[in-house]
Amino acid sequence: MSELFDRVDALVASRAPLPPPEERRRLRKAHGLTADEVAEALGVRRATVSAWESGKTEPRPPERDAYARLLNKLAELYPASTNSSAAAQDTAVPETFTGAPAPAEAGSTPPAPAPEAPTTTTAEDPQPRPTTNAAVASPPARTVRSSATSRRPGAKKAAPANTPPGTDPRKENGPLAVVDIDDDGQVLAYCVGGLILEVPARSLPSLVDWTLKEAGLGQPKLSGPGKDADPLLVLTEAACERYGLPAALTDEERLTGRLPEGHKVIKQLARADWKLTRRGFGPWARIYRPAHGSERSCVQLCIPSWHALDTRHWDGAAQLPPAELAQLLGTYATRVMTPRGSTAVTGLELMTALHPPTRASEPDESGKRHSEHNPGSLGKDPVDCAPCEAPDGHPLLAGLPRFHVRGPAEKLFEEAYEWARPLTDDECTKRYLVGIDVNMAFAAGANGLTVGLGGPTHVKNPAFDPKLPGSWLVDLSHVDLSRAKIGKEWARLDGSLLPSPFTPSGERPTGPAWYATPTVAYAVELGYDVAPVEAWVRYDNGRYLDAWYTRLRDAYIATMAELGVHADASPEEFLAAMDGYRDRDPQLAIVVSAIKATVKGGIGKLRERARGGGWKPGQPWPALNRPTWRPDIRAAVISRTRVNMYRKIVKHAAFTGQYPVAILSDCAVYAADGPSPLDFLPYRDGKPLPGGWRLGVSPGMVKHEGTQTVLWGEGVRDQFDAPELNLARYIKTGEVTDVDNGQ
């Protein structure tokens, strides 16, 4: 009989009554408990408790009975207040759950009655809170029922713009919102932190007006002379249809990247005196009115169903529910900046946001301030590049004969490594090929780099100055890779097993060629004299990218730490933490990918090529009108990144006698007896070789890229009859679908 009773008790426990999700969180916080403490007491993970409190999942036996017991005890201590119960009026509370109107916290005094004001709620703080200085006559906000679309029980109207001094109403609700339609047809704006706002706008022009006047969206400027970030609205397919936009672009619209000028929504905007930027109404549209003084009226739209979020960088973010997408993009916006387009565009815009082109001058005699150049910035006007820095088709090259191919003595060719060699007999006796990858390699290359801020100056037979950024025509073919100076000591190396540090292909130079300053400086560092024939140098220079590097580094390290990969981890701890880190929080893993893409894309965007039909070689293209179109800065970053990598390769080779068998951009592959990087990296007592490879999460340090067997490597090279197939390209997965073509 006791066994029967136990089964009955278990059945009752499986349906133990629980308060609504927002009340669960209120009770925990009222008692000063953290989610970790509750999780530890119940023997579950912290994420499980968070899911119970957000309503994503419900507890199961045996934890459900214990959880209900905890909440009942807390409800006796902290009964629900009148306001709190009103916020949950659409959720049925089981009768057996004890909780009656009383002060919100034990021992506190109920506040005096006050006029009702509009309220807002968040997933973090589910109790409605009055909006400060809200108009008394405003109607109370309606509570929207939880649905499969909204996933949130408490959507509220946006606060009016009246806020206390020092509070900017354009930014109080975060940098962005995802706009969607719930099952009742109500338009909702999902903000960062779980806040949901009701949207009264019935047309796109009125949506823009509402965003600027009531939504409280935006982000503070990143630099003193800069400007606040414009609010970003992300429109779901349902929101697009509500506001007269197609859920997807036609093939023709996708190729042009925009809606046709005659589209009805564009006409609506024009009638309301709203304008679009030159790129028109595309996946990332900017809607604005000309600024009056310091007042900006601009809203940016992101439309994921139009492929605004590139899956290479944002993975499946476009398919996330609105609240989760808002949180993901909000995390990126908070740590990097509000997205301004693709990750590449955002990377470039971040440079400008940190170094605005102009600033306010000191007051003149009449007390008036004027706009002046901001020192350390690239200014507001574009500058011409040097002819050797110009990509093919640039107007500076219009006089060249048709089909002329420029060689190294005519063209600066600073690119990332793409090099491989056959394995030696000794390497063939090893069991494994182990790939290591440099974290945020191009960000590390930008750190501390002096780049040109203004235009170039042409000089003949200059004395080389490693501190002067520019492009140098110099012959480096005399540099002997088998004899190199490392620090203050000369070292003997096997030059046949090393790529040249001066060319991306790793081939030794055969005569004069154009190089960026870091490449020539490394030849001097190796112990060799250089005699440039001519140069294009930039006397106006500075460390323009330092702040850019710092912000992206901090964003990357903070996000990786949330994923369990910490900067102070030992090599063994780091490798263990990196194993499967993406599965711990797939959304944060997407943020990591977006941050890394922001680095690479931003550097690449410095030399954006001509795009679109109608362009002909020798004609200018729109990107040339940007002050941030700077191929010389891109070349300097790539040059320094390649040199940084080579410096570690040489140090490792001199100390261990081991040489890479393949290099692709920021990945190097070594033959080893074991499958782990620790099987060939010379760590001693947990300390790496000074100046060599070092495992860790910080930019410039390395992680494990992948391991395959030597038999695999030799097999794929034989399969494709390619003895120098770049194995670094395939080391991560081992999948080789076609012969290496360098793409």
UniProtKB/TrEMBL annotation:
HTH cro/C1-type domain ranges (all copies): 25-77
The keyword Transcription regulation belongs to this UniProt entry's keyword annotation: yes
Entry superkingdom: Bacteria
Listed Gene3D superfamilies: lambda repressor-like DNA-binding domains (1.10.260.40)
Spans annotated as Disordered: 96-175, 356-382
Molecular function via GO: DNA binding
Membrane-spanning segments: none
Pfam families: HTH_3
Skewed-composition ranges (Low complexity): 98-109, 141-152
Record-linked InterPro entries: Cro/C1-type_HTH (IPR001387), HTH-type_reg/antitoxin (IPR052359), Lambda_DNA-bd_dom_sf (IPR010982)
Basic and acidic residues bias: start-end ranges: 361-373
NCBIfam families: telomere_Tap
PANTHER family (alphabetical): ANTITOXIN HIGA-2, MERR FAMILY BACTERIAL REGULATORY PROTEIN
Protein name: Putative telomere-associated protein
Source organism of the structure: Streptomyces viridochromogenes Tue57
